[in-house]
Amino acid sequence: NKKAFVELLFWKNPTAIREMTEGYSSLREGEGAAMHRAPAWTPQEEQALRELFWKYKEVEGQDVIAAILAELPAPGRTRRQVVKHLVRL
User: Fold this and answer.
1) What is the pLDDT of residues 23-78, one digit of tens each?
2) With contact defined as beta carbons under 8 Å apart, do 48 and 77 qualify?
3) InterPro entries given for it (predicted)?
4) Residue-range domain boundaries for the chain
Protein backbone atom coordinates (compact mmCIF):
# COMPACT_ATOMS: atom_id res chain seq x y z
CA ASN A 1 0.00 0.00 0.00
CA LYS A 2 1.64 3.24 -1.15
CA LYS A 3 -0.30 5.34 1.37
CA ALA A 4 0.68 3.33 4.45
CA PHE A 5 3.37 5.85 5.41
CA VAL A 6 0.70 8.53 5.85
CA GLU A 7 -1.19 6.28 8.21
CA LEU A 8 1.97 5.84 10.27
CA LEU A 9 2.21 9.60 10.75
CA PHE A 10 -1.28 9.97 12.22
CA TRP A 11 -1.84 7.23 14.79
CA LYS A 12 -5.16 7.46 16.57
CA ASN A 13 -5.00 5.07 19.52
CA PRO A 14 -3.07 2.04 20.78
CA THR A 15 -5.42 -0.34 18.96
CA ALA A 16 -4.70 1.33 15.63
CA ILE A 17 -0.96 1.16 16.32
CA ARG A 18 -1.20 -2.53 17.10
CA GLU A 19 -3.19 -3.21 13.94
CA MET A 20 -0.68 -1.32 11.79
CA THR A 21 2.36 -3.03 13.29
CA GLU A 22 0.94 -6.57 13.62
CA GLY A 23 -1.49 -6.60 10.73
CA TYR A 24 -5.09 -5.55 10.41
CA SER A 25 -6.52 -8.93 11.33
CA SER A 26 -4.33 -9.31 14.42
CA LEU A 27 -7.05 -8.42 16.89
CA ARG A 28 -9.09 -11.43 17.77
CA GLU A 29 -12.76 -11.34 18.77
CA GLY A 30 -13.22 -9.99 22.30
CA GLU A 31 -10.08 -7.85 22.39
CA GLY A 32 -9.70 -4.11 22.23
CA ALA A 33 -11.95 -1.28 23.44
CA ALA A 34 -15.21 -3.20 23.08
CA MET A 35 -14.06 -5.67 25.71
CA HIS A 36 -13.68 -2.93 28.34
CA ARG A 37 -16.95 -1.17 27.59
CA ALA A 38 -19.42 -0.98 30.46
CA PRO A 39 -22.62 -2.99 30.10
CA ALA A 40 -25.63 -1.06 28.84
CA TRP A 41 -28.20 0.21 31.31
CA THR A 42 -31.47 -1.69 31.21
CA PRO A 43 -34.77 0.21 31.51
CA GLN A 44 -35.27 -1.32 34.98
CA GLU A 45 -31.84 -0.09 36.10
CA GLU A 46 -32.55 3.38 34.72
CA GLN A 47 -35.87 3.53 36.56
CA ALA A 48 -34.22 2.41 39.81
CA LEU A 49 -31.48 5.02 39.31
CA ARG A 50 -34.07 7.77 38.80
CA GLU A 51 -36.03 6.74 41.88
CA LEU A 52 -32.93 6.55 44.05
CA PHE A 53 -31.73 9.93 42.80
CA TRP A 54 -35.04 11.60 43.66
CA LYS A 55 -35.01 9.85 47.03
CA TYR A 56 -31.52 11.05 48.03
CA LYS A 57 -31.05 14.35 46.21
CA GLU A 58 -32.49 16.48 49.03
CA VAL A 59 -30.65 14.78 51.90
CA GLU A 60 -28.24 17.22 53.55
CA GLY A 61 -24.70 16.16 54.44
CA GLN A 62 -24.83 12.84 52.60
CA ASP A 63 -23.01 11.70 49.50
CA VAL A 64 -25.85 11.11 47.06
CA ILE A 65 -23.85 8.86 44.73
CA ALA A 66 -22.59 6.69 47.60
CA ALA A 67 -26.17 6.24 48.83
CA ILE A 68 -27.35 5.35 45.33
CA LEU A 69 -24.51 2.84 44.86
CA ALA A 70 -25.40 1.18 48.17
CA GLU A 71 -29.00 0.57 47.07
CA LEU A 72 -28.59 0.14 43.32
CA PRO A 73 -29.88 -3.31 42.33
CA ALA A 74 -27.19 -3.70 39.63
CA PRO A 75 -23.95 -4.69 41.40
CA GLY A 76 -20.69 -3.92 39.68
CA ARG A 77 -21.53 -0.36 38.63
CA THR A 78 -18.83 2.14 39.43
CA ARG A 79 -19.28 5.62 40.83
CA ARG A 80 -18.16 7.09 37.53
CA GLN A 81 -20.70 5.03 35.54
CA VAL A 82 -23.52 6.16 37.84
CA VAL A 83 -22.55 9.84 37.65
CA LYS A 84 -22.14 9.70 33.88
CA HIS A 85 -25.52 8.06 33.40
CA LEU A 86 -27.26 10.50 35.76
CA VAL A 87 -25.87 13.40 33.75
CA ARG A 88 -27.06 11.74 30.54
CA LEU A 89 -30.55 11.22 31.97
Assistant:
1) 766 555 555 555 557 788 888 999 999 999 998 888 888 888 888 888 888 778 88
2) no
3) SANT/Myb, Timeless
4) 38-88
